[in-house]
Write a structure and sequence with these properties.
Belongs to the gluconeogenesis factor family. One of its GO terms (cellular component) is cytoplasm. It is found in: Cytoplasm. Keywords: Cytoplasm, Membrane, Transmembrane, Transmembrane helix. By secondary structure, this protein is an alpha/beta fold. It folds into two domains: 92 residues, no CATH class; 275 residues, Rossmann fold, CATH 3.40.50. 52% of the residues lie in helices and 12% in strands. It has 18 helices and twelve strands. The longest helix is centred in the first third of the chain and has 35 residues.
Length: 454
């Protein structure tokens, strides 16, 4: 019997179970005394003799008081034993202690009941959003592009015939709720000059799991357990696909990593094979979502490749969820040179048609002059905010300060997640609003407490 395992030596529970039992017995005796129960007559007689000899009267009153004290003593023992049993179990299951336990309870009880959010994209931009949104809900699904053909991912793709794991790995790490060392391990890139040089450990791990389990979806699911991931990470397709681009001058460029290098204006991108089959779980995540978010990320090489997978755009169009596109802050050299916000939106509509975007989030904060000069040296400039042109397309605009300026201009995870959750809240019914706002405020409170602790 499994219960008997609690009696094994070294469990450090038996002593507290015994103490709890003693507390129950003592409390029971106290109750019996208070209610003058016949089976404790001898014990009551002893109390009577002691009371009578010392007071000579008030027998029943004093007996009741003694009984209450005995009950209280039993309750104290039971409480102490319960506390020690819980502490003993927590010390084994959760070595980090009570703070970690509070995080887990919050995640399971509150975040698991948060809004269902499906995020579509790839690259570092998607990871930034996921880091912020996971503090609000655990019902997150990241649908990730599989068109990457550069670096470690490209090599594994060619050598093993698998989908590129790089963007999938970044999303797993972004959603992870694990130790910093484990995150560093998954992001570690091997040096040297041998066969492992340039490879990322996380990529190799996902590749190994895929070969062991024979299925990349299952490999990502098991990898999520290792990293204690909040939510799911899914590929848009399990087929090995390649991204092609037709330029405005009529030339054709093959390969996601090669498209930005030719420094020509892109007319259209497409996948080979054109009939790339989707992952059914990804389509289900789009159907079941409360909100669907496109980006942030590279327009032509991270966002559009997902939408070009068969059935994704149509499922997105039919979804009743709030559909939000997060426009990039800076243009990308060789990809969106000179693009305004409306041109980003227009490129998406030209490729997959209308009905896939309800709202566009555009950064309203000016980029610092020194950072603009730095980026200008790389051929990147702030995306022009032409909200009026976007709204002329029948798409609503939300303008907000969503950037974090350090030595780079990037979306800020906290600012972005606040903006997104606020939008979801405003667009829901009253009952749903209260529920979503509750999760949002709790998440913000925990963040504030963490900042105070630091």
């Amino acid at each position: 019997m499994h219960f008997l395992k609690w009696m094994y030596p070294g469990i450090k529970v038996k002593r507290w179970l015994l103490l709890f039992s003693m507390g129950v017995i003592i409390a029971s005796m106290g109750l019996a005394i208070v209610f003058n129960y016949k089976y404790v007559g001898n014990f009551e007689e002893t109390i009577f003799r002691m009371v009578y000899l010392t007071t000579g009267r008030y027998y029943y009153t004093v007996t009741t008081i003694v009984g209450i004290f005995i009950i209280a003593g039993g309750m104290v023992l039971m409480t102490l034993a319960t506390k020690q049993i819980i502490a003993s179990v927590i010390s084994v299951l959760i070595p980090d202690g009570s703070e970690r336990l509070i995080e887990l309870i919050f995640q399971k009880r509150k975040l698991n009941r948060g809004p269902a959010v499906t995020v579509i994209g790839g690259g570092t931009g998607l990871s930034v959003l996921l880091r912020g949104i996971k503090s609000v809900t655990s019902n997150i699904t990241a649908i990730v592009t599989v068109a990457d053909d550069g670096g470690s991912s490209g090599r594994l793709r060619e050598d093993l015939g698998m989908i590129p794991p790089g963007d999938l790995r970044n999303c797993l790490v972004a959603l992870a709720d694990t130790e910093p060392l484990m995150e560093k391990l998954f992001q570690h890139r091997f040096g040297g000059t041998g066969g492992l040089a340039g490879h990322n450990f996380g990529n190799l791990f996902i590749a190994a799991m895929t070969e062991v389990l024979g299925d990349v979806e299952q490999a990502l699911k098991e990898s999520s357990k290792v990293l204690a991931v909040r939510g799911r990470v899914l590929p848009a397709s399990t087929q090995t696909v390649r991204l092609w681009a037709k330029m405005t001058d009529g030339s054709i460029v093959e390969g996601e990593s090669q498209i930005p290098l030719v420094n020509k204006r892109i007319e259209r991108v497409y996948l080979q094979p054109e009939e790339t089959m989707p992952v059914e779980s990804s389509l289900e995540a789009i159907r079941d979502a409360d909100a669907i978010i496109l980006g942030p990320g590279s327009l032509y090489t991270s966002i559009l490749p997902n939408l070009l997978v068969r059935g994704v755009a149509d499922t997105l169009r039919k979804s009743q969820a709030v559909k939000i596109y997060i426009c990039n802050v800076m243009t990308q050299p060789g990809e969106t040179d000179g693009y305004s916000a409306s041109e980003h939106v227009q490129a998406i509509l030209d490729h997959v048609g209308p009905g896939v975007i309800d709202y566009v989030v555009i950064n309203s904060q000016n980029v610092a002059e020194e950072l603009q000069q730095k980026y200008a040296g790389q051929g990147a400039y702030p995306v022009k905010n032409d909200a009026e042109k976007v709204e002329a397309m029948g798409i609503k605009v939300t303008q907000a300060d969503v950037i974090n300026e350090t030595n780079l201009v990037r979306h800020d995870p906290l600012k972005l997640s606040r903006t997104i959750v606020s939008m979801i809240y405003k667009l829901k019914t009253n009952s749903e609003r209260m529920r979503l706002l509750d999760y949002y405020l709790i998440a913000e409170s925990i963040k504030d407490l963490k900042k105070t602790d630091r």
